[in-house]
């Protein structure tokens, strides 16, 4: 079975799925998708966002039994036809594909009147576009490598990836750590799995807006950013915060994850929780923080690491895995399973001396490391990769 989406398209050789773009609060995948789209257009390749709703209209509503039944019925049909339009969209396609995959474990094929050269799916979606070279980006294998740290069913996740990898032409990742894990867990030729990293860019013109954003955390605190769940190591971090002797508050910013670790003060300086804030306020909290703490138990990339470095904030993160790779020697590394080691790291960063050599080194090295993921450098990597696939474009970088 397949469903159809048609698009009368100008010469746009790449489509990027818009499944996560524009979501309230944003995610690492949303940042990746937007960065890819912007880079390809800035680099002269030309890319369009494939949506599940007409441009300018809201995303399809989520709930309601009638809507669920309608999606189930659509997933049964061999086709979903649309008028030729541009930018391309197919109404509710992501949810319908999810229903099809959850019910029968099958992928949904899309057909376009004039398909692009490449369809880039920015997360493991049960979709493929016929007539195009299909790429999917896998951000992590945490449900397989650390199944106890996520609510995602590992067997279903593996089955979805097996189906996906059988039909995708290329599998992209955001770190060499994840690339090596994919090659270890799946029988894929090494040349079909590529690490592209991702764009993390906070341009200088945005800094005044960040400084003027509504504050959500007091300046000089320790800040933690991300979904609040077991893999973020929250309870061990709070215990280390109590042990290290600091007077600085620990501010945890992020929504609830698959589980709800305790976020209560264990003595000493206070622990505060901010469940959601605007993007600029989040960046202000990172900018104003004494240090960003991310001693995660598992990550595929670690977006806050680079954001903090780009804003001149020292970073403490986990030794080994993707966090150490992305930090690139510009962060203070700790053993995430050792509360005492995390506490020692926090104590080492607690100095108020503006000339403290550790903080000075981390800030300087952080700026240099963040530049590796900046728009000019990461954009070049994206564009060079697409040119290696035979996708042409004008030189702009």
Q: How many structural domains can be distinguished in the coordinates? A: 2
Give the end-to-end Cα distance, rounded to a whole number of Å.
42 Å
Strand order of the largest sheet: 3-2-5-7-8-9
Helix percent band: 25-40%
From the alpha carbons, calculate the radius of gyration and give it in angstroms.
Answer: 22 Å
How many strand elements? 15
Note the total helix count: 14
Report the portion of residues in β strands: 5-15%
**Helix-strand makeup class:** alpha/beta
Uncertain runs are 1-9
Molecular shape? globular
Give the C-level CATH assignment of the largest domain.
Answer: Alpha Beta
The largest β sheet comes out as: 6 strands, parallel
The arrangement of helices and strands along the chain is: EEHEHHEEEEHHEHEHEHEEHEHEHEHHH
């Amino acid at each position: 079975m397949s469903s159809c989406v048609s698009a009368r398209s100008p010469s746009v050789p790449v489509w990027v799925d818009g499944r996560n773009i524009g979501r309230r609060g944003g995610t690492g995948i949303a940042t990746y998708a937007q960065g890819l789209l912007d880079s390809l257009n800035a680099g002269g390749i030309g890319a369009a966002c494939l949506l599940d709703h007409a441009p300018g209209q809201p995303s399809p509503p989520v709930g309601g039994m009638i809507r669920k039944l309608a999606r189930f019925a659509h997933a049964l049909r061999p086709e979903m036809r649309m008028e030729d339009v541009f930018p391309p969209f197919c109404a509710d396609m992501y949810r319908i594909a999810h229903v099809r995959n959850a019910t029968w474990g099958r992928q949904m094929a899309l057909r376009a009147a004039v398909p692009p050269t490449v369809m880039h799916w920015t997360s493991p979606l049960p979709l493929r576009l016929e007539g195009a070279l299909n790429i999917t980006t896998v951000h992590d294998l945490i449900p397989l490598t650390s199944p106890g740290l996520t609510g995602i069913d590992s067997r279903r996740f593996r089955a979805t990836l097996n189906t996906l990898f059988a039909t995708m032409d290329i599998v992209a990742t955001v770190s060499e750590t994840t690339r090596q894990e994919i090659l270890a867990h799946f029988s894929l030729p090494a040349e079909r799995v590529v690490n592209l990293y991702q764009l993390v860019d906070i341009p200088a013109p945005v800094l005044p807006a960040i400084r003027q954003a509504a504050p959500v955390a007091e300046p000089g605190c320790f800040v933690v950013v991300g979904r609040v769940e077991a893999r973020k190591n929250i309870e061990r971090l709070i215990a280390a915060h109590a042990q290290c002797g600091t007077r600085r508050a620990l501010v945890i910013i992020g929504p609830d994850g698959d589980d709800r670790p305790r976020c209560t003060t264990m003595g000493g300086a206070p622990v505060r929780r901010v469940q959601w804030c605007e993007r600029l306020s989040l960046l202000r909290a990172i900018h104003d923080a004494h240090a960003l703490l991310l001693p995660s138990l598992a990550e595929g990339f670690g977006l806050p690491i680079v954001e903090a470095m780009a804003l001149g904030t020292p970073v403490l993160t986990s030794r080994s895995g993707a966090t150490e790779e992305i930090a690139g020697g510009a962060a203070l590394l700790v053993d995430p399973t050792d509360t005492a080691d995390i506490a020692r790291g926090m104590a080492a960063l607690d100095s108020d001396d503006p000339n403290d050599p550790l903080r000075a080194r981390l800030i300087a090295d952080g700026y240099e490391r963040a530049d590796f993921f900046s728009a000019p450098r990461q954009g070049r990597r994206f564009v060079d990769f697409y040119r290696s696939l035979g996708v042409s474009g004008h030189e702009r970088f």
